Amino acid sequence: MAAEKITSRAKDYSQWYLDIVNRAGLAENSDVRGCMVIKPHGYAIWEKIQRSLDRLFKDTGHVNAYFPLFIPKSFLAREEQMAEGFAKECAVITHHRLKAIPGRGVEVDPESKLEEPLIVRPTSETIIWNTYRNWVQSYRDLPLLINQWANVVRWEMRTRLFLRTAEFLWQEGHTAHATQQEAEEETRRMVEVYRTFAEDWMAMPVLVGPKSEGQKFPGAIYTLCIEAMMQDKKALQAGTSHFLGQNFAKAFDVKFQDRDGKVEYAWATSWGVSTRLIGGLIMTHSDDQGLVLPPRLAPIHAVIVPIYKSDAEKSAVLEAANKLAQSIRDLPLREWLNYEPVSVKVDDRDQYQPGFKFNEWELKGVPVRVELGPKDLAKGACVLARRDLPGKEAKEMGVPLANAATRIGEMLQAMQKALFDRARNFRDQNIHEINTYDEFKKSIEEPGGFFLAHWDGTRETEDRIAAETKATIRCIPFDRKQESGKCMVTGQPSEGRVVFAKAY
Amino acid sequence: MAAEKITSRAKDYSQWYLDIVNRAGLAENSDVRGCMVIKPHGYAIWEKIQRSLDRLFKDTGHVNAYFPLFIPKSFLAREEQMAEGFAKECAVITHHRLKAIPGRGVEVDPESKLEEPLIVRPTSETIIWNTYRNWVQSYRDLPLLINQWANVVRWEMRTRLFLRTAEFLWQEGHTAHATQQEAEEETRRMVEVYRTFAEDWMAMPVLVGPKSEGQKFPGAIYTLCIEAMMQDKKALQAGTSHFLGQNFAKAFDVKFQDRDGKVEYAWATSWGVSTRLIGGLIMTHSDDQGLVLPPRLAPIHAVIVPIYKSDAEKSAVLEAANKLAQSIRDLPLREWLNYEPVSVKVDDRDQYQPGFKFNEWELKGVPVRVELGPKDLAKGACVLARRDLPGKEAKEMGVPLANAATRIGEMLQAMQKALFDRARNFRDQNIHEINTYDEFKKSIEEPGGFFLAHWDGTRETEDRIAAETKATIRCIPFDRKQESGKCMVTGQPSEGRVVFAKAY
Description:
By secondary structure, chain A is of the alpha+beta class.
């Protein structure tokens, strides 16, 4: 239980990230290649993410459903880009039985070979559109506005906890519409839901806009995305919303009779975010002391650490602590917290000293710490500390107990805003316009960041830049300034600047 | 959209069940062998079940986490009973890549063969205890009180929607303790949580007690269960809680230093319920008109069907309907409904007639229907109908709008109680003591039900009875009367009566 220091961001950013994931008890690698164990504190954050996002989905008219984990191999072949995009990295089920071999454990029973192999879903467009065929006959059956919370598997060779794992948890929305316009509106609506979630809940500012051809989803006409900047100035793709046109309807024969009696193929969208968001949360806000969580997604909002020596002190301090805890739980923040109660923990564990507890809760990212000892109690007061502020600035001494709950409510809301503002300032300070390819090649290495550059719009140039610099086009922001120019690489005409960065 | 009648229970119980699942939009078979699609209304019920159970778990000190979908083949071999119990029916992953073959779609790439095959988890004891090895060093690290919400796969040959499917959704609790006593207390605590959930939320009365040796979980020392009677008098195992002793700790080397410095193996429990509960819900309460849902688990509590002809009528009626809906949402039932709002739908779809809507919501099991037309409005009143009562008894005419919300709150609570009482009466009327094997063999066929009979306690007799009658020992109820006797089959001494029934 010795408190080893976390590696600092300055010293080794990758190690700092792994230290946070490990020391805050968020996740660990399992003995199954590429698969992670999401530990209780990490899963509690995922539950917060799920519930808040789920409400945003339901408020925009969506319902949840559940489709099979397995996809027949032949389904993948029906949509050409899909097969190319996902066939290379998937878990293939070929048998359905093991048998015990005396002295040798269990072996695959060759007699149980499947007629058609199954793959574990890497994404569910194929199995869902195969199902929609029976659900859609008339325009009256549309739109279908369905979301699924599920696990998916992509056989990644190089994995990193939360950011890239073979199995991950996600949600995938799959909608079917009677018209192209409606489907395109849905595609845009959902990327805006993601923006709202990223900015208002995760306190993580994002750029929003389409991906380039080279970066879009296999099978999509176009992909919209939210793109965030991490503290090492690299980009994280945090959510995508795809307009799929009629590709899947044609591949799976999903037709309907429109208002005029004409038979049409349905129009599709799909959109998803995953446990990768937890990686984004860590890399946006955390510091060299540990995890920092935006209050709206914190599993525990405030921890009260009682300080005492004698039994008499303990009983008086714990009584006051429990009373304060209840008044914090009663704070009128229900709507702000997605109708879940304010979560308060009184850390009354006898086997640990207060200093140990302070460190532990700092490491785990609890937004507000309350210190309460006999001297505080004698003054009818307590000490409050806000997780995101440095050193002495974090502490408020002598806060009257009668006002403490209200003050904590204010601190939670102020912290949510401060985290967003700090992250946005950081991002904005690290976005640069750049005009020559030489300058670009230098700057992408040092100082790094997001670079707004003119590009000729071709896949060829995009691929060349990626090959030469490892930077990719992250997004063509909806709100970019109107400015035509010349491609920094080829000198060909450009319709406007796009965002280049190195990315996770 | 023609309203085909549901097959009646009396005519064909199995078909009635499938008709309900189909017509209420709960689930359907997919094109993947044995896997179901859980449709939005079915999934909404599962979400209700999840949230209510999850709160009961957290209130008893448990936290959620997530472990890998895949289990290395060798793990299964480490616990002998586990290997025997699950190896016969599992999805085996042997390769990790497909490749495109021009003109032939995609094929499994033989070069991507895994060194060690993986199986899709049929249950997670092995992977979880393999993880716990690194989490447990000292008694201070115990207990681990962890639950997982997940999908699991068992390669069932004969499937039935919700009741038995190859893939299903469930929760599995896996706890580790420092002492046998603590683990046994946990085993009992969790079966009682299941009883509470079954009776207070599902309104489904259950018998509670251990399984016989022949029916226990592979790898368990003993299994406790909740067992319910369906309307065809067959039994449904609805939840199990296993005391696993030190079997998994020994198989995966999970040791800790106890208070005295001695190294011990940890003690284990596991417990689970699944989407099978939705099958139980249907078969406990539903009728020949469709689904009947206990209000505490209903995704929609009340539907308001406005009745109008002219536009003027429509606007007046809808205004009153929306006002009433809001007052229903504001009912003080939050705690009773697990802190989720009362859910009300105003069915303002123009394309359907009121009669069609009445049928649809009846089919879907909405507990209370409100009818509101211009004549009602003129009297400042509405008509209420309770889903579980027959014919005219269901209706309350001329309920003043000012009282309607309160009255609906009362009806929801009364209905929850009435469903439980009706199910318990039915169950109690169909439990019989029986003393001879001849009588047993006749009665198990007709009239059927649960039979309390003496049994000599041997596996041999248990297996013989199962082979000859298809009835199994469902449970040895905790609250059985103290009565020794003689086994109905062998005449050997019996410690008390056990419950026999045919089961799903």
